[in-house]
Amino acid sequence: MSLKLTFFSPKNTNSEGAIFIDTGISAGFPSPADDFKESRISLDEELIKNKEATFFARVSGQSMIGAGLDDNDLLVIDRSIAPTNNKIAVCFLDGEFTVKRLRVDGNDVWLQPENPDYPIIRITEENDFVIWGIVTNVIKRL
Q1: What top-level branch of life does the organism fall under (predicted)?
Q2: Which residues participate in catalysis according to the annotation?
Q3: Which tens digit of pLDDT belongs to each residue from 84-95?
Q4: ∠ CA(72), CA(78), CA(80), 5° rounding?
Q5: 49 vs 30, 58, 62, 82, 123, CA distance in Å?
Q6: pTM higher than 0.90 for the full model?
Q7: I need a surface site. Which of 7, 47, 102, 107 has the fewest CB within 10 A?
Q8: What is residue 33's DSSP assignment?
Q9: 38 to each of 4, 22, 67, 120, how far by Cα in Å?
């Protein structure tokens, strides 16, 4: 029913950041090497808007593959973002964490997987349910 998530808190990285090539990387014809301008980039600054409310979690499972969330991907989750319809959320449901797309219609809430092999979950008053945070980014290994 749910994906297993392992949570991590963000840590300070090198304040200088990683080297960033400040031009578009062509997916077509290569551009001359003289066009490259080098600077520094901080992934913290790019991916984290509210450090105190941001966590990372590793995905375990296949229920969200249609949304591009694959097994072992690293999610960036912001707990300060208001949950709204169509957002991808990390939820605590009946004692387990899961990540699903929110479907909200008035007072009705469903958790929509992005894999047809998994059922849509309708949230009822009987459920122990908390929207824990909103997924803002996913980090993949190639």
Answers
A1: Bacteria
A2: 63, 100
A3: 999 999 999 999
A4: 160
A5: 33, 19, 28, 14, 29
A6: no
A7: 107
A8: G
A9: 39, 6, 33, 47
Kindly report, residue by residue over 56-81, the tens digit of the pLDDT.
Answer: 999 989 999 999 999 999 999 999 99
In CATH terms, 4-10+51-139 corresponds, of 1.10.1740.10, 3.40.1550.10, 2.10.109.10, 3.30.750.200, to 2.10.109.10
Strands 129-139 and 54-60: unpaired
Q: What is the DSSP letter of 125?
A: T
- The residues spanned by each domain of the chain are 4-10+51-139
pLDDT value of position 121: 97
